[in-house]
Every structure is written in structure tokens, then in C-alpha cells.
């Protein structure tokens, strides 16, 4: 074969795509965009003399490998790759590699500390297999990957002379391998150049980062950057899969119109969606299986059935014959259907043997009507093209062929999980699919109506509907279709000229489908459209790294003995016996695509193999694997056993259940073995709505004790029903007991599951009745639920007892529902539906998983429960659901708790005193959500043994999350918080304090802190020029015109000036306000109509005034020249002075002080850390609550030293801000950046050190003047606390939850917080003795004593809502959706 030559028209990106396609790497390899960026000139060339030398050497080594192999290795490493002799070290001489799979050579490269290991080189005999192990010994490639992970050196080169395998492996990531065959280097010189380019010394031995911290072009760096670029791969594939489903649905709709509606007449909308999605899921599985060579590889399969081969054939035909021929053929579709049937049922033809995989995914009975839909070859080609060829929207990378071997199971799950918010809708009128971020599908008549209102209105409407910019929309509307585009539109309209004419003016707005045709839905079409938003229901795809972390720390204590539960160091952990590990029961109650279950399956299987290698592989396992198995075979066998008996999952979306099955099938797929049987373990239903205790079934009530007293009649049929559940349990245990190694066993499992489900069907009816009655009476007195259940009891008992056969086997047979049963089910469906679009599907844990729940519950629960804030819960799920959660999951504890709190409580309820590991929004440890969830768990005896309090979500969702692990840890288990060992972890996810209790508000701090004015109305705001013009017109207007300062202004403006002005009529009545006619007219014109739409009557009535003018605030500070203010929602938590002539926004906290000692105190590390410990957060920002922070902050007596250091701090700040023209945020970003060493920043850091030392001294003086403080502290602290003077502050750059900060050390912070809490309790006790906290005093006195001046008293939740309200660029102009004032 002559060598390939690069075509003159081939771009660099196409050249790189070509050699990547030839190489076909395994695992997540180098991303094409990264390669193009790093090698913009293409691959490096190999000099002719070097190529000739390699050709000659290769010919010689093949003739005498035993003699010439060492010199061949040397020639490749030294001559071809250019690795210097002094860079290579014998692996046997390196002490750190002792007792490991030592490489023959280690190649060293440069490092800041001299040099470091960069590449492990393994040289094996000529005939040794590199990817297969021997017995229990891992393969050479696996051994190399293990060493890479253990040492942190990510690269290895494994060779036997002919095959040179590049290995990349990092901790927690999949192994990547690329096999370079020396026998192909002369036929495919591009591969030789790729080998030399990647593994040449300059690239392979380079560090991942340059000295300045930027990524290098070294090979390790390319892999690291490619891992980050995998997000782009996933996003691109997700977009293309969505388009492929849309195209397939559109094709089915076209065929339905051609058939006069016969094709889809009896097919429900949801089933059309499910069918299209299942087809795409089947194709992904087949592409993955083909690349893994789990399906036949012979020519007959490729020619007649292969999916990838079919794509290649269709692509050739398109190139040779054009698109039109594909529109007239349907052979490809029927070839796929035949393959689907063969995969499900198998093929025994002597020339084509395919094992029967079974499983619901390929079941032809599921969508038989697809065989009547002659989908065209062109559509099939475009669908396959979307699955196989990545076309990134951004960047210069060429289209690249996707390797499914390089995709994680989790990535595939992510792609398809994005489709779960879509469905199909049958429509009678024409619709069009538009461009833009939101890509909406809209009825044509609506487009025409909006267009008729005029260009300006139409553009504004389109901007809102499409999520496109006005410029994009104007450009689209200006497009004039050419002849080809007009013809495509005509065809898309089913050749309806009138319809095409109506759409033609909007053609530029229509998005193209995968064929490039405009997206048009003629009458009687089926839309593939977004009907929900899983993000709106709080569902976010979990990245692999987070799922692995949750699973690891949940299961490690359960899988090892000794292990973390015994306090053993990790290198001493030992796996429990395999039989014990396979008894574990792990559940994810909101499993989505199954990411957590896949991680759990991997983790347990690894421990099982470790145990087998230590204790010996059981004989039955050896018999099944055969004598030639290796560790990979053993691990795969363990995964299949684990999947069959250890993992369980639930999801309220039926397609999520199918997707989770697909994920686990791919993870456990074995050649010539059927799919793992998972139907019994992965179930459809709502985890939160349903019974969790068998006693609830037998007593016909959510409260078994109450049920026993009012439903005694049910006891007469329990004796008959209980054996049915026992038999169902036995059947399910039998399902798990034997492996699914052939299709006959799978069929037997299906039969047993069907029998078990028929046995429990009547019990489900009773359980559904209990839940439906509870939902229909949610929020009402308990007696109403009792009465409703009593009213239904006779009907339920009649249905359960009707014609009940003697034996459970007879009962398990199919039966026709009675009229009474149908009526009862209709009633229940209405109650379960409530105000929702569809009824809730209750999930009854003791009926669905009796073999687990009868043994006490699951060993562990893991997951990422949906995120829905407490204020949005009612709107998203219904009043009845929220009330149900509060009373029947939350123990009646009210408050605006997020949904994750209820999932957390449900997780605890279904565990057998085991472990729970979850990811949740960081509100889990805050406010009402903490009280409902973590606090109640603590009260019930659960302990948090590990947590990450807050970290950014790594995906696209903009939120902060907490990672929480709960259980009943043993005495020697060490709690870990934010990676640091602590004495214990509180329900607020803080280190357990040596002082117990919550802080009190102190009377001494009353009346000093305020929240600024809540304006509510954009019309109050003026530009400075407008304000000045009004003052020039009438100087009296100065009485009501003021500079307006917001939170963002405070932190961003270098001169702390107000960028806007505001009209402020104080607390005046309307008559007085009208005496300023110029300003009043503006407010009447701009604000009154806005306020008139407000649901709050008081806001409508006082439309000319701020909703909270905070008159008391301005009275309090009227005699001050300046005032100390702080942005309430910010990571900064740093106050500063502003003049008192401003109106201060509700985004500002105001302290009625002007002395520099107060600046020092509130800028100190003590106040900073107290604020973070005492406040809630909004995303990554602190939501400062003056009542929770300032009023509880035990302050020291002011000192002259504090005044002096406050002066120095103010001066140091002003110097940098004025000279660099930067605001507070930018200033403190520099202060916290260890790379910034300027003298001015050094001065500011030193000023903060002096502030902290001066404040510490002030606390010490108080402590020394008042010995009772130390005596009180000694009584309340669980262990002795050092004196204030003895605290080592240890200022420096320390890791905190807010990132790296220049502050006191974590150890000092913990001591400071403990002492501040003790001092708060001491001060409160002293005040209480003085009668300052007497509850019998008048409300007015209490308000003053607790620091809530009349007129400005707001509780913590109100402050949080108002300070954190998300608005436009104006502060305080629009009401937060749930604010009361």
C-alpha cells in the first residue's frame, strides 16, 4: 500500500483529525481542539535519514527479535524520540518505586526543583501480550496505569517491540491508551509522525505547567487540558443527539401525515418520545459495543448489520449519488430494526452468531409500530452522523469522529439526561422552530400576530421568546431566501405553497435541522419540544468526580475492616470478605442517569476483587471465568455480581430509569453475556411520596399507631395478605441469588419478577389509597385524614378481599379489575394529580424492595437530590405536596426548607443505621433547611462524620453545594471537615465548638445596625445630570434628591461615590410630597403604574414612598459626618466609611458609628469569621444579617490602640484605591493573592495584622479586668481555652471556604470563634440579670433592647430575602418574588 499523502486542501485541523481516526485510542484521549491549539503547524516531520534508519532496523528486528530487541528499543528511544542518555534511569535503582510495578526505565525532565520523573518505560519480550494479564496478575498496561496513579506521574510507555502503547492515568480518572503499531509506521507515515510528536523528549518530558503557572505544550499538559475540554465534547454530543431525536420525531410525523394519520393514531405522545429516545439509546449502546468488539467483527456482520459500517456506507452513497437518493430509500432503517431484534433475541445462524442480550432496551415488543415507519436512508444517515461526528460550534477544530471507547459512562448519561425534560406534542396547526439560545417551537399564527404589531414590538417579543440578541434577530429577518432555500422551505411545508408563503417572511428566524432544512411543523405534526425543565425541578447532572467522592467516603467505612470506621490509616485498610461485600445494599432515591450507582458498582467490585486476591477466588467464579482469565475479567465479573445484587435506584421519570439501566449495562457489559438484570432494582416512582414502613400498609395509615386504633377491621385480612408479601420477598431474593449468564436465566428472572409484582399489586392499591388520602387532606387537621381513610376502608377491603384465591400462586395470575376497583383508582388518580399536570406515582418502599426493607433498610444511600428552594417548593410541586413533606417527612417542623432537606430525611429513614452521602445546596446547613434536615437528624442520634461545607458546583448551574456524609460512626472514626480533622461537625457544618449553644442578640449592640432603604421602583432613580437639572430648576428639590449608594457601588467604586441619585419623599404623606411637583410628577408617571401591579395592598397605597424608608436610620446618623457601611451580599465582608448625605440601599448594612476604632473592629478577622459563622449564604456570597451578626457580636472595650490602627488601615486602603483606581473588591483580591508583592499591598497586609493584634489586646484587657469572664468560660467550655493573649494568630495565606485568604490560621479561627461564643453567652447572662431580656416587658422595650428600632425591625429571614434579592442592575428597585415588604 503506498503511503497516504496529505491533500493540498487539508487543513491542520483535518490532518490532526485524520491521525486520531487512524490511531483509534481507548479511553478519554487528547481532544482535537487542544491538539490544534498546541500544534497549529501540524505534526512534526521525521527526517528522511531517520525514517530510513527506522525502516532498516524494523526489518532486521523482525528476523531476530531475541537478539536485536534491546538495540531496537534503544534506537526508538534515543534516535527517534530523542531522549538523552542522562535523562534515563534504571527503574530498579529508584527507591520510591520499591515494591511497586517498577518500570525498566524512568525518563526524567526539568522541574523547578531540578528534575522530576516524567515517563515510565516498560520493555517487554517480543511475544508478550501487553493488554492481557496472566491469572490474577494485571496486564502490563494496567500495571503501568496503577503506578502512574500511585506516583502522580501520569505518563507511561509500554512496549514489546512491535506495539508501543502510550498510557495516561491520573487518580480518579479513566485510563487512556493509544497503541502505535510499528508495522504500520511505513504504510501510514502520519502515525509515525504522531508518535514522534507526542512522545518526543521535548514534549513527553516537559512539565504540565510553565514556571509562571500557565499550561505548557507538554504531553501531560495536553492531557490535562483535554480532560477539561471533555465538557465541550459532552455539550456538543448532547446538542447533536437532541437534534437527532428531533429529526427522527419529525420524520415519524411526516410518515404519519402521509399515512393519513394511521401510523400514530393509537400512539400516545409520550410513547412517540420514548420510542425516538430508545432508538437513539440503542444506537449508542451498539456503537459502544462495536468499538469494544463485543459484537461480531467479521465481514458478514459489518456488511449486513454493523452500525458504524452502515454510516460509512450511507456517507459514501451520499457523496456519490447525492442527498435525493437517500430520500427515496428506507433499507437502512429496516437493517437497524433487524439488528435490534438480533441483539435482543440473539442469532444462531452458523455464519452470524450473536448472543441474546435481552433487556427492555432492545425489546421489539415495546414499540412494534416502528416497523411500519419506513424512515428514509437520509434521516438514518443524519442521525448516525450526529452520533459519530462531532461538530463543535466554537473554535477552529475540524469535525472529528467520536470514539465511544473514549467516553465515560457518565458522559453518555449526561448527554441523554438532558433529553429528559423534552417530550412530544401532537398539533393540528402549523408550528415553526426558531433560532436563539432557547430554540422555541411556536405556532405560526402567534408569530404572524406579533409581527403585525410592528417591528419594535416584534423584536422585543422575539428577544424574550428566543433568547437571541436584537442584532441577531434583525440580521435573521433581513435574510432573503435564494432558490435552494425556497425549495427546501417548500419541501418542509409538505409542498403546501400557501403555508410556505406564510412562513417565507420569517425564514431567517427558522433554525435548520440536521439536514440543513428549515424546522417547520405542518398541520398534524408532532413536536419534539421542551415540556419541562429538570433544572426547574432542581435536577442537575452530577459530574463523575463528585459522584465518586460521595460514593468513596460513604462506602469506605462499610467495605473495610480495619478501615476508616476503626480509625486506621489508609495504607492499613483491608477489604471485608467478598461474600460480606456482596451483601451490601446501596440506593440512590433520585438516580437520574445512574452516575452514583455506576460509581458504587465500581467501588464495591474493586473491593470484591481485592478480597478475592487476598482470600482466593471462589471455585464457582473460576469455573465461570475459565483458566485464561485476568484481573480485568475478574473485575468485570465482580461488577456484574455487584450490579445484580447490591445497587438500587428510583426516579420519578420513567425514561431516567431506562437511562440508568443503560449506564449500568454499559459498565457491566461482557462478551457473549446478556445484560445484567436490573428491572427489580431500578424502579419508577416518587421517592418522597409513599410508604416506608410495612406497618403503614397493614394499619392502612401513615401513622401505624393511629391506624391501629381506627382501622382495626384491616386486621381480618392481614393474615391473608402478609404471605403474599413474604412470597414476593422470596421471589426477589431468588432473582438476586443466581447470575444472569444466559438468556434463559434472564427469562426466569423476568418470570419471577412478574409474579412478585402481581402478588403486591393489591397491596399497592391500599398503599396508594393511604398516600392519596394524605395528599388530598394535606394541611388540614389529622381527623380529616382519619375520616377520609375510614370512608375508603370498606371499598379497599372489598377490592382486596374480592374473589381472593386460596394460594398465593393463584393470586399472582392476571385478573380483570372490578367496577369498584376502577372507580376507586379514578378517585385516587384525581387526588394524586392535585394541581399538577400528571398524577404523582407513589413509591412504596416495603412493597417495591421487601427483601431490603424487611431487613431494616439499605446499608447506604447516596445521591444528589433535586435542588428546589423552600420559597419555590409550593409553586413547583403544589401546596398538597409541600404540606405532605412538612407533616409526613419533616416531622411537622415548618419553615421554608429546601427540597433537599426532605430527601435527606427520607434517605435516613430507609437506611438500616447505615451511611448516607449526599450533595445538596449549601442551604442544607442554613436556616429553616438546617432546622428541618440536619438538626432533626442530629436530634435523632445521627452524626455527620465528614463534610465539605460549601464549594462551587462544577457544572453549568450557578450555585454552591455542600457534601455531607452521615452515619453512626465508631468511637475511633475521625470526623473530617473541609479536608481537616476536627473534634466533631455541627448541623451547620462547622467544627464542633468547645462551647455549646447558639449566640444571643445583645442589648449592648441594640440600635446601632440597620439595613438601608428599600426603594421598590425604578422610577425613583435619576442620573446625576437629571438630578442636577431639577435642583437648578428649583433649589427646593434638594430636599428630596439624594445620591444613591448600592452594595455593588460600595465595593466597586474607587472613590466610594454614588453613581446615581434618588427621589426620596421620606415618610411624608401624599399632600406634602405634591409640594415638590417636578419630582412628584416623575414618581407618579414612572412608579405609580409599577406599584399598582403589586400584590401587596400597602405598597400600592404608598406608591410615592419607599417601601421601607428607614426614617429611624437617617435620624440616628443625622448628627454624624460619615457612617460605617458594609455590602450585605458579598464575599468581601469589609466595611468602609461613606458620607451621611446619601440614601443607602437595602443592599447595605449601616452601622451608626464614625470612629476608626469601630472600623478596626469590624474589619478584623474576628468580625469576618464571626460573620461567616453566623450568616447564611447566597451562592458563594455571604448574606450578612445585622441582627444575626452584629447584634450577637461580643465586642471589646474600645482602645486608643484600636483607633490608631484603624487610622492606619483607612490610610493604607485609600492609598491603593486612589492610586490604582480600584474598588474594595479588587483591592482585597490583591491582598489575598500571594503572587502580589507590591509595597502598598504589603502595607495593607501589615495594617490588617496590626488591627487583629490591637483587637486581640482589647479583648485581653477586658478579660484581665473582669476575671468572671474566664471563670464563666471555664464552666461552659468542654476543654480549656487559651487566654486572648496566648492565641497565636499566625497570619498568612490560608485555605478557607472562600478560597485562599490572607487571614489568621484555621486553628486560631476555631479558638477565636469559641471564645467569642463564650463571651456572647457571658454578656447575655449579665444583661439578663439586669432585666434587659425580660420577656414580660412591653414589645416596644423588647424591640429596643434587642437592637430592633421601631419601624426597622425585621427578622433574619426578611433581611436575607431583601438583602439577597436578585434584581436588575438597580439596587432595591424591584420586589423579590417572596418579599413581604
UniProtKB/TrEMBL annotation:
Signal peptide: none annotated. Its EC number is 2.1.1.72. InterPro entries: MethylTrfase_TaqI-like_dom (IPR011639), MmeI_TRD (IPR046820), N4_N6_ade-DNA_methylase (IPR050953), SAM-dependent_MTases_sf (IPR029063). The keyword Nuclease does not apply. It comes from the Bacteria. Residues 1328-1381 are annotated as: Disordered. It catalyses: a 2'-deoxyadenosine in DNA + S-adenosyl-L-methionine = an N(6)-methyl-2'-deoxyadenosine in DNA + S-adenosyl-L-homocysteine + H(+). Residues 1017-1197 form the MmeI-like target recognition domain. Keywords: Methyltransferase, S-adenosyl-L-methionine, Transferase. It is an enzyme of class 2 (transferase). Residues 646-926 form the Type II methyltransferase M.TaqI-like domain. This is site-specific DNA-methyltransferase (adenine-specific).
